[in-house]
Amino acid sequence: MNRFSASFLNSLSQEASNSPRQRQHLNLHASYSDNCQRLINVVNGDSYIQPHRHSVDPKLETLVALQGFFSLIKFNDEGKIIHISLFGSQQYVGHSCDAFGAEVYPQEWHTIIAMTPSATLLEIKEGPFDPNTAKELALWAPKEGSLESKPYFDSLKSCAWDSIS
Fold this sequence. Notes:
16% of the residues lie in helices and 36% in strands. By secondary structure, it is an alpha+beta fold. The chain has one domain: Sandwich (Jelly Rolls), CATH 2.60.120. The chain starts with 5 loop residues before the first helix and ends with a helix.
């Protein structure tokens, strides 16, 4: 039996802070061949995740906030924002957002932004998992680590903040 304590999440959060990508995940499943892929993913507020979709290996993705507050941004095929969903852990539901999780369908272009300095997701997806077909990166969005990624990320985060009523 696995237990996920506050010290466990703090340790994973520290690893995310030390990572150049400002995020860190831990697989809970034993192997990529498992029928259910489960992972905990700490995403810091400055972590840019290039918009992508899961159309090559079409599987529904379920995201649940364990800590912090997130924005799920969905795009059309040209890269225009079509929807922003806000979700967060219990302390944010009813204040900044009205949900604790979200689902992403395989054909949906999307990205996730941590709206708090550090936020933690539980991600669940049907297996098996093939890292070579898991993501189709959006060609209309800057690559992670590129010079263009920071201003693009900042504009996405600004749109997310603007969507909060």
